[in-house]
Amino acid sequence: MTTTAIQSAYTLLNESIMYYEGRPVGTVAALDPTGPAAKNYEECFVRDFVISALVFLNKGEPEIVRNFLETVLQIRTQERAMTGHEIQPGVMPASFRVVADAHGNESLLADFGERAIGRVAPVDSMMWWVILLDTYVRVTGDEELAERRDFQRAIHQILQLCLRDTFEVFPALLVPDGAFLIDRRMGVYGHPLEIQSLFYGMLQAAQDLLRPTPENVKLVKMAIKRKQALRTYVRIFYWLDLARLNEIHRFGTEEFGAGSVNMLNIYPQSIPGWVEHWLPERGGYFVGNLGPGRMDFRFFALGNLLAILFGLATGDQTDDVMALYESRWADLIGNMPVKLCYPALEGIEWELLTGSDPKNVPWSYHNGGNWPCLLWTFVAAAIKGQRHELAHKAFERACAQLPGDSWPEYYDGRTGRLIGRRANLNQTWSAAALIFADQLLQDEKGLAMFPREPGP
Ligand code: GLC
């Protein structure tokens, strides 16, 4: 069964390869024979391609990854010259496509959020680009690419953009709604966990990649300081387990001044009813979002799993997240790994936080759907947490289901038993995630591909 699933996944991945001037430069998001749900699924998304890239790097085919890294950078330069639009230096596109004119001359057309549904800013793209570059160098040893002037400049600009002064008091990065995998309104504005995990991984990667030139020294120092502050902040303030819930439940509020315990002034009344029942005796997770007077208790898988992978979580926190997965398996894995966000927003919350988005109805799509593309992060985190049996269990579930269902983009329902109502079929990252998960299970040395902090 596994072999057939992997073969089928490879067929899809290979067919999805996108060419520009004869060179492979990326993979399209979906190859749905019935037509994609939206036009831009024919494009190569930066966040989607990362998983394809991990597969190609791991099997010794780095060329497409190198081409991709260069292409995205090239688009960045073109875009500024073409439109004169005020996109900040450092911002990377959400996606791009190759267009040909009547004479067959090809050019690249990118989306920096100005064409995207809802006009959302892809903040995660620049993070993924740096992390992928670091992984590419780590795997191939091709340091020359990262040392190129245009690459060094891009890393410098990304750091400058992310580290520049803001009005903020805390080290977490402030972003607008829908700035990452969840690219629709979902109440994920502010300081969503996924962005903080990616930011942390990016800071580590940039520190590895930037050459110690006089103009970089100050920036790298700032990056190191921010990374350390972010790590402490996330580990303490985003963390939730039963002991912490007890503290929050009894929090004093309206504390002014230096000695306050409840620094963000979280009102105990804001703890949703489901949390107390749902949190197991042993286990915990990083909450989805945090800000003044605001703790979003929802569990977001990707932020938690990347926190483990990049070493933002301590060893104990890693064990606890895995313990949570084990005791809440039906909710967080269910019939298809992996639930994107738990629980779903319903009723008035859904109306207010999604803007009554019919694609994000409760237990569908971003709002509580199950996403096969997350399988690789679950497998990687489980291996890192020494929970190989959980990794295998999730992997086998996915193998048994995905090829027969034609690689859906997502599943609906509390336990993910239904193919997503508006899901594409033949979604590339669903297939790539299965292959990369298999590669990691075959040889866990693959985990060394990622930027990570040594020790707790
Ligand atoms: C949807 C997802 C986004 C993904 C894109 C292509 O817009 O929300 O995260 O990158 O599809 O698969």
How would you characterize the overall build of this protein?
It is a single chain. The strands form six sheets. This protein has a three-stranded antiparallel β-sheet with strand order 3-4-5. By secondary structure, the chain is mostly helical. It is 47% helix and 9% strand. The model has no long low-confidence stretch (mean pLDDT 94). The protein has one domain (2-449): Glycosyltransferase. The protein is globular and about 70 Å long. It has helices at 2-15, 46-58, 63-83, 123-140, 143-147, 149-163, 193-209, 214-238, 242-249, 273-278, 301-309, 315-327, 329-332, 347-354, 375-384, 388-401, 428-442, and strands spanning 17-20, 23-27, 44-45, 95-100, 106-111, 239-241, 284-286, 289-291, 294-296, 299-300, 341-342, 411-412, 418-419. Alpha-D-glucopyranose binds at residues 29, 41, 45, 47-48, 181, 183.
Q: What count of domains describes the coordinates?
A: 1
Please write the string of helix (H) and strand (E) elements. Answer: HEEEHHEEHHHHHEHHEEEEHHHEHHHEEH
* Average pLDDT metric: 94
Name the ligand types: alpha-D-glucopyranose
CATH level-3 fold name: Glycosyltransferase
Give the distance, in angstroms, between the N- and C-terminal Cα atoms. Answer: 39 Å
Biggest sheet strand line-up: 3-4-5
Strand and helix map with partners:
Elements: H1 2-15, E1 17-20, E2 23-27, E3 44-45, H2 46-58, H3 63-83, E4 95-100, E5 106-111, H4 123-140, H5 143-147, H6 149-163, H7 193-209, H8 214-238, E6 239-241, H9 242-249, H10 273-278, E7 284-286, E8 289-291, E9 294-296, E10 299-300, H11 301-309, H12 315-327, H13 329-332, E11 341-342, H14 347-354, H15 375-384, H16 388-401, E12 411-412, E13 418-419, H17 428-442
Antiparallel strand pairs: 1-2, 3-4, 4-5, 6-7, 8-9, 10-11, 12-13
This protein binds alpha-D-glucopyranose.
Alpha-D-glucopyranose binds at residues 29, 41, 45, 47-48, 181, 183.
